[in-house]
Each structure stands twice: as C-alpha cells, then as structure tokens.
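In response to a reviewer's request, we include the raw inputs and outputs for one of the modeled complexes. The two entities were modeled together in a single run.
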Amino acid sequence: MDPIAQLLAVATLLPLVGGIVCYVIRNSVIRTLTVVVTAIALIGASLLLLQNGPFEYTPPPVAGIDWGTIIMVADFALLFVFLGLGLYLKNVLVTLLALAQIGLVGYFELVVAPHVEVKPALFVDELSIIMALIISIVGSLICVYALQYMPDHEEHKHLERSRQPRFFFWLVMFLGAMNALVFANNLLWLYFFWEVTTLCSFMLIRHDLTEESIANATRALWMNSLGGVAFAAGIPLLYMNAHTLSLKALIEGGARPETILLPLALFVFAGATKSAQMPFQSWLLGAMVAPTPVSALLHSSTMVKAGVYLVVRLAPAYVGTSLSTFVALAGAFTFLLTAVLAISQSNAKRVLAYSTISNLGLIIACAGINTPLAISAAIMLIIFHAISKGLLFLCTGTIEHKIWSRDIEDMEGLIGKLPITATITVVGIVTMLLPPFAVLISKWAAIEASVNMPWITLFFILGSAATVVFWVKWIGKLLGAPAGLNGGAERLEALYLAPLALLVGMAVLLSAFVAPLVDAVIARAVMPYYQVSGIAAAGSDLSTGVGFIVIWPLFLVLLLVILPVYLFVRVKAEEIRPAYMCGENISDLHTVEFRSLQDKAEPVVTSSYYFEKALGEKSLNAWANPVAIALLVLLVAGVMVR
Amino acid sequence: MSNPMDVLVVVAAIVLSPFVGGLLFGIDRKLTARLQGRYGPPIVQPFYDFLKLWGKSRIVANQSQMMYVYGYLLFTITALCLLALRQDLLIVIFVLAFGGVSLVMGAFAVKSPYANFGAQREILQMVAYEPILMLAAVAIWKQTGTFMVSDIFKLNQPLLLSLPLVFVALLIILTIKMRKSPFDIAASAHAHQEIVRGVYTEYSGPYLALIELTHWYELVLVLGIIGLFWATSIWAAAAIALVAFLLEIVVDNIAARMTWSWMIKFVWGTGISLSVVNIAALYLVK
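The model returned the following structure tokens for the whole complex.
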C-alpha cells in the first residue's frame, strides 16, 4: 500500500477497528489501551496529512469488488437499519423518512444512473485537512477523557453490567466516519458517511436508555433523517442537471447551470438540520441528556461540524446567487436568536448548546456572505470553536462529576473549591469571548466581511452583544467565592487533566499564532476557489483588507495583567476583609451571613439575572421558530421561483 | 510601532490622558456644584482624591481581586493607544470591552451582594452600548471604506455632517460610560445609592485609585471617538468633544437615575434606531 493509502486507512478505518475491539473485548485495560493507541495514531495521521498537503485518491477494488459497490450496499443496509429503527421505535416520522430515503437512493441507483463512477473518489484539500485535524485531535482527546468519565458515570448510575464497550464502539467509530465524510469527493459516499454520523449520534444520545434519552435520541434521528431526505433528493436532481456527482467538479471554477441551485439548496438544508439551525435546534439541546463526552464530541469536532462543513464546502458553487443571500440570512437569524436564548438558561450544558448553535449560525452566515474574507472567518470559527467548545464541555463534565450538578447557579465560587477546573473553565470562556483570542478575531473578520450586507451586520452586532451576557454571567458565578485566601487544593485525575490542559493550551497558543496559521493553512483552503485569501497575515498580525489587528501586543498586555499578581502580589491574612454588608456581617470571614430582622442570621444569596419572562424559550420560540421555518422554506423555494 | 512618531503618540496618550481626564472630572464636579448652588471643590480635587486613596493601606477580599483592576486599567489604556495610533476602530471597541469585562469579573470575584448587583447591571450597560459603538464603526466604514481610524483623517468633510444621528446615539453612550444620570445604575460617583457603589463596592484604597485612573483614560477615549466626527482639524475635534462633555454635565444634573430595563429599552430602541436610520439613509442616498 502506498503511504497515502495507509494514512487514509488509519484516519478512517482504524477508528472502526478500534471501536470493534472495544466492543468485543470487555476489559477496561484493553479498552483504555485501544482508545489511547487509536487516539495517538489518529493524531499522528492527521498531522502527516497536513504535512503531505492536498491530494486526490481512488481506492483500488478489494477482492475484485470496487468501493463504490461496497458503499452502495452498505448505504442500503444502513437505510434499512433506519427503517427497522423506525418500526422498532414505532415512530411514524422515522419510518416514513427512512422509506423516502430508500426510495430516493433506489430511484437514483436503479433508474437515473446505475453505477456512476466518480473519479477521484476521495478529494483532500486544505479544508478537508483542517477538518481531519479537528476531528482527529479534538475528537481523540474527548475519547481519552471519556475513559475517565464513563467509569465515574456508571458508578454514579449504579450499573450492574457496564455498557462501556458499546459506548466506546460508537464514540471511536464516529471519528472514522467523520474523517471519511470530509475526504469524500463522490457525493454518494459523502451521503453514506453523513447517515453513519446520524446513526452514531442516535446511538450515543440514547446510551443511558432513560425515557428522556430515548425520546431525545428519536427526535435527533427524525430531524437528521429529514436532512437525509433533502440530501438524497439533491443527488438525483444534481446528476440530472450537472451530470456529475463530484464535489470537486461542483466547486471548481467554470460555468454552472442555474438549475443546480435547487440541489445545492437541498444540500444546504441538510447541513442546517445537521448543524441544528433554527428550527431544528431542539435535537441538539435534547442531545445533552447523553454522557458529557458525547456532547463534547457532537458539539466540537463531529456531527454539527459536518453540517457547516458541507455548507462552507459548497459555498463556491453558489457564490453570487440569491441562494447565498438566503443562506446568510438564515444563519444570521439563528446566530442572534440562539445567543439571546442562551441568556435565559441556567443549565450549563444548555448554555453551551445554544452557544454552539449560535456559532454554527455565524459560520453558515459567513458561507452565505461568500466573500474570501467571510469564508476565511468561517474556517477560523470552525477551528477555534471546536477547540474551545470541546474544552468547555469537558470542563462542565468534570465539574458535574465533582459537584453532581450542571446548574450554573450551583457553580458559585468554584474557583475556591476546584481551583484548577474552574480556572481552566474561565480561561475557556475567555477564549470564546474576548480579544486577542481567535474566536473573537474570527467574529471581527466576520463583521468586517458582512458590511456589504448591512442587515447581516446588524444581526452580527446584536448577537455579539447578547453573547457577552451569558458568558460573563457564567464567569461571574465561578469566581464568586466568599472573601478569604483561597488556597483549596484540587485533586484532578490525569485522564481529566491531560485533555483539559492540552485543549486550553491549544486554544491559547493557536490564538497567539493565528497569523502563521492563516498563512500556512486557512489562506490555502480559500485561495483555490476564490483566487484571493481574504484575510492576510502581516508578521504576527492580521489584515482583512478593510481592518487590521495587532495580536502579540495584546497578548503582552494580557501577560502584564496576570503575571504580576502571581509573581509579586503577596496578600497577608490580616489584609483580608469580608464582603460589605452595611456593617451587619455575622462573623468576620468565610460565613457569608448578615444580621437581619430581630438579629436573625440570614445567609447571603446572590444569583444571576436570567430574564426568563422576556427572553425565555416560551416567549421567543413562539415566533422565532415560525420565522426560522419561513427562512428555510424561502431558501429552498427561492431558487425554484425565477 | 517602528515609527518614532508612533512611540511618541503612545507615550503622550499614556502620560497626558490622565491629566486631561482628571481635570475634566474636576470641571464636572465644580460645574455640578454650581448648578446645585454649592461652591464645589477645586478643579484639581480628583488628583487629591487619587493621591489620598493611593496612600491608603491595602484591604482586599482575596489574593487575586486586584488582577481584574489591572485588566480594566491596562486594556483601557491599550484601547486608547490603539485609537491614538489610528488603528482599526472595531478592535478599539473590542479591547475596550475586555477592560469592561475585566471590571465586571472583579466585581464578581467575591461573593458580595452589592458588587454582584453592580456586575449584573454593568453587563447590561455593556449590552446597551456595545452595539451602538459597533454601528458607529459600520457607519464610518460606509463613509471611508475601511475600519481604520487613519482613513477618517483623509476625509475632506467632517463625519458629523453625514452621520448626525449616529453622533446623537454616541452621546447616549458617553452618558453610560461616564456613569452619569440617567444611566448611573451599575455604580455612581457617590456611594449613597441603593446598591452602595455597585461594581466598585469591594475595592478600596490603591485599587480604587487605579479604578479612578482608568475612568479618566476611559473618558478621554470616548471623547476621542466623539472627536473623530470632526477630524478635519484637531481644534474642531477638541471643541465638539468638549461641547459633548459639557452637555453630559447638564443632562446629568437635570435627569434622574432610571432603571436598567428603561436603559435597555431606550438605548436599544432609540439609540439603535437612530444609528440604523442614519446608515440606511447613507445607502439610499448613494
């Protein structure tokens, strides 16, 4: 086998093999070894892919059977699994949507174009490599983290027989399916792996087998199947109009018939369902019933990122069309609304989920703006959101296993009780929110790219303001410990600490070196399709053409803020005073109580504003979901009416 | 920063701004006193206050509380330097926001009822003024074609003439940033408020002095952004900034403190509408 084929096999098939080993051998040592070895191999393979650069490849037939046939058979098998699941769950929607997909794929394979050959079958450019890096590095770290999390989780649930073999089978295999998805050039292959990720997430969401998790997994299944139907309908439509199923042919220059806009709109619709865009946000919100590593994986490096990958990937094919404008509008709407909805949530995982949906909306809006700068911003967001969001889910999972709550109000003063985890969480939030960290830099690039579509800019600006609220409230809770010298020691297990430390290190260091990263990778992912790079590195700084940011001086200021406090400031115990309570404090320190009526001791309770009435799901969803549905209908219908 | 002129600009911004900001607050106190029929302190009183606070012994709630004050100070100074260096206006706004978030984090950094209230309200103030500032940057982009402050100075005509409504919206922001009535809801100049001193409650002595110092820098920064609206001459810029400042003092003295919900409604309703109408007009005219 040539080295390229070996790398591809490690990236796509090894997770499947690792998953099977985890499933078959019910031994925790073997499982740990398998997951760690798979993780290291995946990370290594993705880095080698980066070093190797873009390429095309068509795998040779195995024992005389070509891969197209293998995937077609597997695809039908998978769709029949969905059909079986629909019948087993007695869910009409799942059943009908599976039947529709079987019909559409069958129609294509038997009637429209039996046995289409697409060459190359795999097409790996810089964007695919970026995706593979995210999937393999962030995804693998999450799998390693799960090795510590799942035993804790099962202990808390008092399970008699461990369900970890099954859990790790789906979790590890997921990474292989995702890698294959971003390498596929043949849209039929992409569709197959698209459906595999739907199956993986269904299995992982329902893992705990509670009533709630089964219901939420079923919802995720039908919503994603709806996207699957759109995808499966797009394939024959595309082939009839463009006579190709090659992604590469679709996005590389040359005249494109207007008739391909409808299949493109259907693919974008499929991307919107997978990325849980409004009105489909409920499946991702429901997915949080799953063990936290699943949430971390779904939100950062897999599943939802497949949706935005497809939308961004196809962007060059619909540049300059009305479809592009609708995509921008739909994404921007979700960005703003879900950022506002996040304000009303006190459940940490729901806040994170809304923030994910919001950021995905921003990425999709950037794809719709569809200028080189906007696409650069979208790719930067995909990278940096994956790192910071994966990190924040793992932080939440760790906190949950220490305090057995995921309510932000219960996290008050964690900086005193769990200094390591809380500090990493605060840093994680800061990397999502503030300059000079790359998520904010991407947002800046997105705003500067949007100004030719002023309505989109307005959505971006208002959404950014809303974003500040829920993040800063959360930071505030973590910091709010009673007055006193906090020196609480925290024992953090190595398998928790290592992924957290690596992810937080990546979030900070890659932000500091975002300019070289743009030069080496992101610009090269944009240039082939847009001729120019949009965002350009100037030394360690970045330029958008209409704006400029200095990065290292800002990091220097940040160091000047933090370091002196740790190096030089030595606070003595006698310099500490309790919080001000109008002189009615009960004792001097540590107890946060005050003298109330009749000298009764009253504990101080501080809590955040949530604006449940004005900004809660009840009041906003009532009109926001219909608007979102209308936007998606417009998106698909808009290209038909002309 | 390779240019020696740039170094000079940065040094001037860092060294001179506190004197300008402190004096302006001194003038504010004098004028306010006169409007209220009092004699008032000398206009250098803010500097006396600063030195007195600076000399006090350190009292803190924990060992890292001061970090957030350094963050507030240093990021505000950085934002001012970026403005003085005529950099990207959006980045100036974002860096200024880091300063603001740092102050909020400092207020949250100890479980204190009054500071917690102040912090919650300060977040709402940020939510109110951030969009207006960013919309102003977009409006300026519409006139110059870039987000760089340097390009504003290349215009032949003052921005105020084409962006009058955006300018009015910015005046509202100036009130919030100066912590003046009707928007002195997260912390006011005086401690006799329903939430004591809000975000400042848990700071005293030298750290409170640094907060005051930051406030002076912040005032110069916001007035600097206002001055951009008549950037064809440095004197005209200084004049409109001064007029805006005096106007704030009058507003402060004739307005009562309002609630945060009123603030959000007013700023998002009136302020954003003004900006949007102004920007829309620019698109329609061209």
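As requested, we also summarize the result in words. Residues 165 and 225 of chain B are 15 Å apart (CA to CA). The radius of gyration of chain B is 19 Å.
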